[in-house]
């Protein structure tokens, strides 16, 4: 039973961030240590609410109240068992998930919700430190071979579940390293990639095989008894304005992987570098924010992030009532860095590294602006030199610019981070004849099964998991879909399954 007065005795608290000038000099994660005692205090705020809506808010159905109470009592091992029963990779979600569970927390109706992410993250790191996380090898082998195409959270979750069920699983990844967008899309300062490598060692010890630098063809996949396609939704939304083709205008997913390759040690300097440049990011979501923090670490003179939508309210509005995930104004660690004001007392190293030479005391490193429409990208005929925009609003006739709100600004690097609109037509999509629907997603039924038009795959079950079938979404949804698709494929191959299926078929059908 939870402490019925814990939320009355303690306020919500999170780990502090390292000082801005210090953390902008490296790519390490931004958080200071948060003691176990403080985590136990935060866990004690979980109330005995009767109906824990956090279960429904979490796509994995994490048993949150149970492991909160176990942490409160100091039973870390039991808390770990509860956590890993529903989530293959809590060290990923604990760092990267926006926590829809917290949006559904009953305490959040009238108070700050429980800091669920911090508790989750601390549990799994306890488990790694104590050596509780070990390879879970199957007790028998089925003799069935399964191919998983794509190694993001959906692909990895499906692979781990199917390997543990006794199948011989091979994961194909077209990049040179495993991890999908977690590897090359998420900046190092948000999640150091050693945590991915640590988990991959466990999976390899369990028997999962990984093949990189390979986008498998239909001919290769015919050798398998079942296929899970988890290739993500990686075609970025473009900006059809004058100047789009100028040098210095890039999609975010052209920019971010290059920075990550520097952190991996593949090169000394990113091929798309913000150092000494005035950077404009078009798009106000997580990907744009990742570009924001990356540009600051590269030494940008200034960073501006434009969002076409209005500034969200500071408290939950009527459009996102409890227990839905609230659209509210948030300050990410990158935005916190942008709000840093130059003091004039920075060291020579900080001035050089942080791009402060052209900044005056009191200047902020970066800004966010809302309700901004980009009208034109300007240049010298070859490369970008500036941008024209206007304040905008959504009226009866859709998006419209506000009269006399036009502005121009200098820009040396423009990054497009306006979301993703479709899967790519990779060899697996073409060779199997998978259908891409009107919304850019691979078509599937409510059991995640696709219907390849290539007759050669009529007898090979093919399932679609993650963003490829769902559309751009959260890491926690990717893991959930990977687990669910694995259960359905296991059932198809064996006639029954003991693997959990966290997603209700109705949830899938509603996306069609």
UniProtKB/TrEMBL annotation:
<dbReference type="GO" id="GO:0004355">
    <property type="term" value="F:glutamate synthase (NADPH) activity"/>
</dbReference>
<dbReference type="InterPro" id="IPR009051">
    <property type="entry name" value="Helical_ferredxn"/>
</dbReference>
<keyword id="KW-0560">Oxidoreductase</keyword>
<protein>
    <submittedName>
        <fullName>Glutamate synthase (NADPH) small chain</fullName>
        <ecNumber>1.4.1.13</ecNumber>
    </submittedName>
</protein>
<comment type="pathway">
    <text>Amino-acid biosynthesis.</text>
</comment>
<dbReference type="Pfam" id="PF07992">
    <property type="entry name" value="Pyr_redox_2"/>
</dbReference>
<dbReference type="Pfam" id="PF14691">
    <property type="entry name" value="Fer4_20"/>
</dbReference>
<dbReference type="GO" id="GO:0051536">
    <property type="term" value="F:iron-sulfur cluster binding"/>
</dbReference>
<dbReference type="GO" id="GO:0006537">
    <property type="term" value="P:glutamate biosynthetic process"/>
</dbReference>
<dbReference type="InterPro" id="IPR006005">
    <property type="entry name" value="Glut_synth_ssu1"/>
</dbReference>
<dbReference type="GO" id="GO:0016639">
    <property type="term" value="F:oxidoreductase activity, acting on the CH-NH2 group of donors, NAD or NADP as acceptor"/>
</dbReference>
<keyword id="KW-0028">Amino-acid biosynthesis</keyword>
<dbReference type="InterPro" id="IPR036188">
    <property type="entry name" value="FAD/NAD-bd_sf"/>
</dbReference>
<keyword id="KW-0314">Glutamate biosynthesis</keyword>
<dbReference type="InterPro" id="IPR028261">
    <property type="entry name" value="DPD_II"/>
</dbReference>
<feature type="domain" description="4Fe-4S ferredoxin-type">
    <location>
        <begin position="37"/>
        <end position="68"/>
    </location>
</feature>
<dbReference type="InterPro" id="IPR023753">
    <property type="entry name" value="FAD/NAD-binding_dom"/>
</dbReference>
<dbReference type="InterPro" id="IPR051394">
    <property type="entry name" value="Glutamate_Synthase"/>
</dbReference>
<dbReference type="InterPro" id="IPR017896">
    <property type="entry name" value="4Fe4S_Fe-S-bd"/>
</dbReference>
